[in-house]
Structure formats: C-alpha cells, structure tokens
Write a structure and sequence with these properties.
alpha+beta; D-Amino Acid Oxidase, Chain A, domain 2; 2 domains; eight-stranded mixed β-sheet; six-stranded mixed β-sheet; 10 helices; 25% strand; globular; binds flavin-adenine dinucleotide
Length: 400
C-alpha cells in the first residue's frame, strides 16, 4: 500500500527527506509557506560543506556530517552543480588559543576528517594563505563551497519526477493526529496523510507544539550578518579562514569564506534576532521576543553569555568593531575592503528550559508525526544523511 507522507518545510532537509521517500515509493507532498524553496536558513548561510572538524566524536553532527559531505559532493557531480574544494584553515592567532586548537585537531582525527594537517610552521601557513596572521593552524583541504539553494532545487526536481507534489505558498497552520492518520491544514487546503515529518527550521517548536510535543527545546533565533569584500581585496583570501571557536558557544566565529561563485564574504556574527525571521534590527516580532524573554532558560542564558552578547551586538551596530575582529586574521585588510553588508541569515538554535543551547541534532516523535527539533550547522552539509537517519530510526518499515 502506498504511504501518504507530508513533509512540512521546503528547506534542504525537508526536500532531501521528500526526495528519499518519494524515491522509495511514498506518495509525498511538501508544504512550504514561502513562494520559493530555501528562503530561510538554507538560502541564507555560508555555503560551506563542512568536513567535520568541530563536532563531539560519536555525536549525530559528527557522523551525519561525515556521511552527508560525501553525499552532497556526489549529488553535485550527478546534477552538474558547482562544488569547489577551496579548503579551510582554522587559525590560532596567539598562544591562548593553542589548547582549543589541539582539541579541534583531536576531534577532527576522531571524526575522520580527510587529509587534515596540523601546521606549526608559519611559512607553511603562508603558503596556503599568504596574507593570514597566526602561529598555528589545522588545514582541511576538502572543506568545500556550494550553492545550497541550487542543490535544494535540484533535489526538488527529483521529487516531482518521482510523482511527488511541492506546494509553495502553503503555510501549515494545524496538524491534527486522528484515528488512522494525520490532517494537515493550511489556509487553502485540508488533507489527510498517513504520516507527517516537520522540518520547519525556525518554526520547528511551533509545529511541535501543535501536535502536543514537549515545548522544550524552544527555538532561539540568532542572526548571522555578513560583510562582502570588494573584488580587489578578495585576493587576500584563497579559501576559507576560520578562528578557533569559543568552546562555550555553538557558533564558529566570524570567518572569511571564498564562496562557490568566487566572491569572499566575512561573517557570520551571532546576534539575538528580534523575530524568528528577523533579518535586520528593524524586523521585530513582539510575540517572538516576549516568548524568548519569558522562557525559563532566558535568565541562565543571559547570565552565562551576556558579555559575549554585548560584544556581538556592538560589532553588529558598529562596523569598526566588526572590522577589528576580521583584521586579526588578515592584518592587511582595510575597513573599506568590507564593501557592504550581504544577506543575513537567522539560525534556528534550540535551547532548553535550563538555558542550555542544544549542540546536537535532535528529533522528536508524537505518533505518526516526526519533528526535527534542532538542525543547526552543519545540517545543510548533513541534509541527505539526516534524511536517511530519520527514515531509518523514526519512520516505519513502510518507508523502506
Ligand atoms: C548564518 C548561517 C550560516 C550557516 N552556515 C552553514 C554552512 O556553511 N554549512 C552548513 O552545513 N550549514 C550552515 N548553516 C546551517 C544550515 O543553513 C541549516 O542547518 C539548514 O539550512 C537547515 O535546513 P532546514 O531545511 O532544516 O531549515 P530551513 O532552511 O530553515 O527550512 C525550513 C523551511 O520550513 C518552512 N516552514 C516553516 N514553518 C512552516 C509551516 N508552518 N508551513 C510550511 N512551511 C514552513 C520555512 O519557510 C523554511 O523554508 C548556517 C545557518 C545560518 C543561519
């Protein structure tokens, strides 16, 4: 019997799942509220295919990133989409960062990052990135740049070719579990399915709530802002230059990325967004902000990270502060080399009642409804592997 499956969310993870299930014979419908696919995190990120350097060995992030990287590369080959292995340096600028760099090296080795090299020789560092400042680094030559929007579109074509439907402009307002199935309601449709999988990114806790799942973890939106480098100054960067991240925080820090279309951007920072889809300081949702402020975890989180919060917000509002952070890694950079702000993205970061920021991917299930509750970076890299993981662990044998 054909399984009628609804996927909520037309980002890269929802579409990867729809492609997998339609390829296995499910009757798949994707509901996407926007007029186009990949309009939120998927289309507003750094475009990096991560090689798995940072993640706790054995975590879902570590295993699914390693598997997902290979699958994204194969998909790009199959579809003729650009995939550029520009490589990445994680650079320690001074001695205080050597301990954290050693931990990244340890994790990278445990995670099987291919061809990773530790560099302690500054002249070798400069062979890879001639304009970088630093005393040591790890180099991941297979970290790549891609266009995740094109990848999502290409996977959507496979869904359609397998007979699946992709309904754009269909915001799901209600998911009701009923005897023998689930109803998915939008303003213009009301249909019954055998099962539903929600991959709704910034709205994943809202969807979870409608089906009676635990309100925790909630989504805390963190905006990431980028500055674009002028074409002339982009020669200062060959591939990707990353800082050694602060291990207390789940974000990687402002970095230089040579993108798949050859422009270089600097970012993203991490500032609290005042709306789930708040791409600038003027986009404010009183409801979203109030809900975050009254979440039990708000006090503990603010207490732990207020200093970093002030620092990030200042850098967002004052270009010289953002520039100063970037120049630490490329001293030749001039403030005028950061020509304009690029499109910002908002990360859907799950946080618990105690104020803890969830690090790993997380999935929840309420009867026939499966909800992806935390899919932060590297979920774009890992998307095809996340889809396989959900199918294997959460969907019944009918899915296979
Ligand atoms: C600034 C930034 C930089 C990043 N850099 C990288 C990177 O370099 N590499 C990497 O691997 N990852 C990166 N990430 C993370 C990556 O972008 C995300 O993990 C990934 O895109 C998540 O995909 P998704 O499909 O779960 O979510 P999304 O892309 O956010 O898609 C969710 C979709 O659900 C839809 N939706 C929500 N509610 C409803 C509803 N009620 N009805 C219908 N549709 C609904 C939304 O419109 C949206 O299209 C970055 C993220 C950000 C924000």
């Amino acid at each position: 019997m054909t399984v009628r499956t609804a996927v909520i969310g037309g980002g890269i993870v929802g579409v990867a799942l729809a492609r997998l299930l339609s390829g296995r014979g499910d009757d798949v419908t994707v509901f996407e509220k926007e007029a186009r696919l990949a309009q939120h995190q998927t289309g507003r990120n750094s475009g990096v295919v991560h090689a798995g350097l940072y993640y706790a060995p054995g975590s879902l992030k570590a295993t699914l990133c390693a598997a997902g990287r290979v699958k994204i590369r194969e998909l790009c080959e199959e579809k003729g989409l650009p995939y550029r292995e520009v490589g990445k340096l994680v650079v320690a600028v001074d001695e205080t960062e050597l301990g954290a760099l050693a931990e990244i090296e340890r994790r990278s080795i445990a995670n099987g990052v291919p061809d990773l090299v530790r560099i302690d020789d500054v002249s070798r560092l400069r062979e890879i990135e001639p304009h970088v400042a630093g005393i040591a680094a790890v180099h991941s030559p297979h970290t790549a740049a891609v266009d995740y929007t094109s990848i999502t579109e290409a996977m959507a074509q496979d869904v359609r070719a397998a007979g699946g439907r992709i309904l754009l402009g269909h915001e799901v307002t209600r998911v009701a579990v009923e005897r023998g199935g689930v109803r998915v309601v939008t303003r213009i449709s009301d249909e019954a399915f055998d099962r539903v999988i929600a991959c709704a990114g910034l709205q994943s806790d809202v969807l979870a709530k409608t089906v009676g799942a635990d309100p925790s973890p909630k989504i805390l939106p963190f905006r990431g802002e980028y500055w674009e480098m002028t074409p002339e100054s982009s020669r200062l960067v060959n591939g990707m230059i990353y800082p050694v991240p602060d291990p207390r925080f789940p974000f990687l820090g402002v970095h230089f990325t040579r993108g798949v279309y050859d422009s270089v951007h600097v970012g993203p920072n991490a500032v609290p967004a005042l709306a789930r889809e708040g791409y600038g300081w003027m986009q404010i949702s009183a409801k979203d902000t109030w809900e975050s402020l009254r979440w039990p975890g708000a006090g503990p989180l603010a207490k732990q990270h207020w200093r970093m919060g002030v620092d990030e917000i200042s850098g967002s509002l004052l270009k010289p502060l953002y520039y100063r952070k970037a120049r630490r890694f490329v001293p030749e950079l001039k403030m005028s080399d950061l020509s304009h702000k690029g499109a910002a993205g908002v990360r859907a970061q799950a946080w618990g009642r105690g104020g803890e920021l969830l690090d790993d991917f997380a999935v929840d299930q309420v009867g026939p409804v499966t909800v992806l509750r935390n899919a932060p970076s590297p979920a774009a890299t890992s998307s095809i592997a996340i889809a396989e993981y959900i199918a294997e662990h959460y969907l019944g044998p009918a899915a296979r």
